[in-house]
Amino acid sequence: MILDISRILKSPGDSMDFNGLVSLGDDVFVNEHIVNVSEITVEGKVKNISGVIVLEATGKFSYSVPCDRCGEQTDRSLVFDLTESFVKQADESLQDAVVLEGDTIDLRDITEREAFANLPLKNLCREDCKGLCLKCGANLNNSPCECKDDEWNPQFESLKGLIFD
Ligand SMILES: [Zn+2]
Ligand SMILES: [Zn+2]
Fold it and tell me: How many other C-beta atoms lie within 10 A of the C-beta of residue 56?
């Protein structure tokens, strides 16, 4: 998504609203998972504050990621804030500001960066996901498996090894 800011670039005090879609296309690898994100909706405002272009926006997107406990693909959504400053020329006092190339802002990279920085580290299909049985691998959310509790107790496993080896 390319934002044309030529209208406010030369007039301090001016601002403009914008909204649009940032397309990412490919799957991205985040937090050891493949995360499928196709599009991020971005909505916000750019202001010319004494020659510095300040962008404040909100990004929203849906994605799917495997549950950390049971591995089931889970649909989630995320809303995040996007803030960035832009200057026409490099400025020592504004080292965090991005130097503009021409009179447009390409929102793709900053949106992608902020979106993934805000992805949660933990992903559960539901708060009380029961996960997989350590013994047989069954998804315990669907139904209890045949394994008895003592059969997958790790302490019991090591004991059994001592006896039968
Ligand atoms: Zn789960
Ligand atoms: Zn089991």
Answer: 14
DSSP letters of the chain?
Answer: -EEE-HHHHTSTT-EEEEEEEEE--S-EEETTEEEB--EEEEEEEEEEETTEEEEEEEEEEEEEEE-TTT--EEEEEEEEEEEEEEESS--GGGTTSEEPBTTEEE-HHHHHHHHHHTS-S---SSTT---B-TTT--BTTT---S--GGGG-HHHHHHHHHHH-
CA of 147 to the centre of ligand 2 (A): 4
Rounded to an integer, what distance in angstroms lies between the CA atom of residue 112 and that of residue 30? 12
Q: Which residues lie below 8 Å from residue 157, measured CB to CB, with a gap of 6+?
A: none
Domain boundaries, the chain: 2-129, 130-165
| CA atoms of 49 and 30, how far apart (whole Å) | 35
User: How far does residue 157's CA lie from ligand 2's centre (Å)?
Assistant: 14
**What's at 115, amino acid-wise?**
A
Statement: the pTM of the whole predicted model exceeds 0.85: no
In this prediction, residue 3 carries a pLDDT of 94
- Report how far ligand 1's centroid is from the alpha carbon of 141 (Å): 7
Q: Greater confidence, 149 or 146?
A: 146
